[in-house]
Amino acid sequence: MKTTYPAPVEQFRRQVRTWLEENLPDGWFDGAEMPPEEREAFRASWTEKLHAAGWICASWPKEYGGRGLSPLENVVLHEEFARARAPMRADWFGDTLVGPTILRWGTDEQKAEFIPKILRGEITWCQGFSEPEAGSDLAGLRTRAEPRDGGWTINGRKIWTTRADEADYVFLLARTDPDAPRHRGISYLLVPMRQPGIEVRPIEQLDGATDFCEVVFTDAHAPEGCVVGGLNNGWKVAMTTLGFERGASATTGHRRFEKELRKIIGMARERGVHTDPVIRQRLAEQWTRVQIQRYHGLRTLADTVNGTREAAGLGQLNKMWWSETHRATMDLMMDILGPEGQILAGAAAEQGAWIPGVGMRNGRADYPAGVEQRAFLFSLSDTIGGGTAEIQRNIVAERLLGLPRG
């Protein structure tokens, strides 16, 4: 079903679509797989093209290098890049999370230092929120930041820090007033990663990927002007960051699940189980849930465009919905594969494999799982990352249903 926006916005859509058709490599829209060496060359040149055209961070104000797109224009931009399967961001954490946060809360000096580098893709970021004993209960974090030598000294540990082994900076939460109430003694800091006081320990997962890391801070240093949004105001700033994370793909988030489900339906047909009444019912249920996710996105978009704020708690509801839907879809896929799904049929040490809905992941020589198996394994984390399903239910109960706090 096609969603139509006002005429000026649809005209902007045609502009974006034309640019993509003229700038993507020959054969891109035919769906041909790009050889690894060509893919690397494409990725290297693509960021430069995006920056030159002004598509990176296009919703940012013009005075900071963006295009000043309206919310609907920004949605259309995302939709067209998703339709074309074209990569859109130089750095997810920089473009979508910390960059907008600095624009909202940062000082003029922080904006001048970081915003141009984010736009040009010159620095990469990771997010230091979760800790070994403070994951979904983020306010329970123990990492400390203390003023020292004209800056801050940081001690503590962060975990499940995506791409920490590649990042130049981390935006992290640290306790700066241990005597304040849990939510009030926290600050939001921008900390350089490449220094002796920071140890990054990659966490190898079952399929061999090491996207997640543990990060240990031992007298790590951050400059005096690294605090964003004011001292001990980090909780409020962090909630802004998480709002950007959950709102960036309102009308496009469902697309990868639709594509994945089409592939699974094809598997069912190939194996002759698509006529099985139980399998048919489960496929229909998952298709319905993906469409509901699409409508959740449209509701979020309407709430944003109209400024009604009628959907308090909708971000948590959406996250809970898609994560549980995806896990159920992956369970269905494994049932369709049957005994075949239990055989390690992947290439040994499959380096740089593209996992649909996940991205590039390295393989493991002694556990050569196939692409479908690795997608299934990764889906097990869906209901944990970004806030566990249990925590999301509590928030929905309180904000949407008006139930008393548990």
UniProtKB/TrEMBL annotation:
Gene3D superfamilies: Acyl-CoA dehydrogenase/oxidase, N-terminal domain (1.10.540.10), Butyryl-CoA Dehydrogenase, subunit A, domain 2 (2.40.110.10), Butyryl-CoA Dehydrogenase, subunit A, domain 3 (1.20.140.10). Residues 10-122 form the Acyl-CoA dehydrogenase/oxidase N-terminal domain. GO terms for molecular function: flavin adenine dinucleotide binding; oxidoreductase activity, acting on the CH-CH group of donors. Keywords: FAD, Flavoprotein, Oxidoreductase. Residues 126-219 form the Acyl-CoA oxidase/dehydrogenase middle domain. Belongs to the acyl-CoA dehydrogenase family. One of its GO terms (cellular component) is plasma membrane. It holds the Pfam family Acyl-CoA_dh_1. Its cofactor is FAD. It comes from the Bacteria. This is Acyl-CoA dehydrogenase. SUPFAM superfamilies: Acyl-CoA dehydrogenase C-terminal domain-like, Acyl-CoA dehydrogenase NM domain-like. PANTHER family: ACYL-COA DEHYDROGENASE, ACYL-COA DEHYDROGENASE FADE29. Residues 232-401 form the Acyl-CoA dehydrogenase/oxidase C-terminal domain.
